[in-house]
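This section describes the prediction task in plain terms. A model, or a person checking by hand, is given the sequence of a single protein chain and must write out its three-dimensional structure as a string of tokens. No templates, partner chains or ligands are provided. The sample shown here is typical of the held-out split.
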Amino acid sequence: IFLSPLGAMAAEPNPSGLLAGLAGVAISSPSVVAVLVGTASVFLIVWRLKSGTKAAKLPSDGVFTLDSLRCFNGVTGPICMGVCGKVVNVSTSENIRAGEGYGKLWAGRDATFALATLSLKPEDANIMDFKLDDFTADQRKALAGWYKHFTTKYTIVGRLKEYEGWDFSSVEKEAESQTPFGLNKAPAESDEKNKSSDGEPIALRPGDAVRLQGTGSDELEGKTGELVTFNPKSNKFSVKLEGQKELVSVMPGFISKI
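The expected answer:
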């Protein structure tokens, strides 16, 4: 689940900045969205032609570094991301796009730590100062689910040099019995509602009508309301429930889109 923060248009002609800005604008009309996306695509093509920028090519030896992986962000190359030492090409994903959604978080970056901790904070990508033993059982389970999702759905195109010497065999073993998104805190019906047609979570944005499920709270369970914003510090959504003035903070796994 991802909430796009409001972005600003770049002052200078910068294709990634333009896409990031367009991704953050709340638009209600599908036709307007189509025009904006089309305009951004044309701008990107023209910019590449004028600047002479060539798309980055995958390394022949399959070895990436965090620095070289940055080029594979959907702007200067195909969209790739790191998961448990492996690099996968996710360019065919409907939800991972350059400068928006999950693409703003993980395109051209390593997502291992963020996936294990279910974090939507940009600063939790490319985190390397951790050990697998630091994760709780639930976090290891979540990481195994995500690992299985990305490495079975998308093509593995290489490995990250920074993870040389790491042993992810325990994650790979647990992934054999896992399904994507690991924790499964919400009921199955809620999980299915929060997945798009390609099996990944759908995006939630301000103004969306939502229902709370699997909260374990009699006061919140089954309540409906409007999504207001996302707090990256607490990793929770603020929801205005029907008939209530005060906002409630809810973890992503307990929210389903109506």
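For orientation: The two ends are 14 Å apart (CA to CA).
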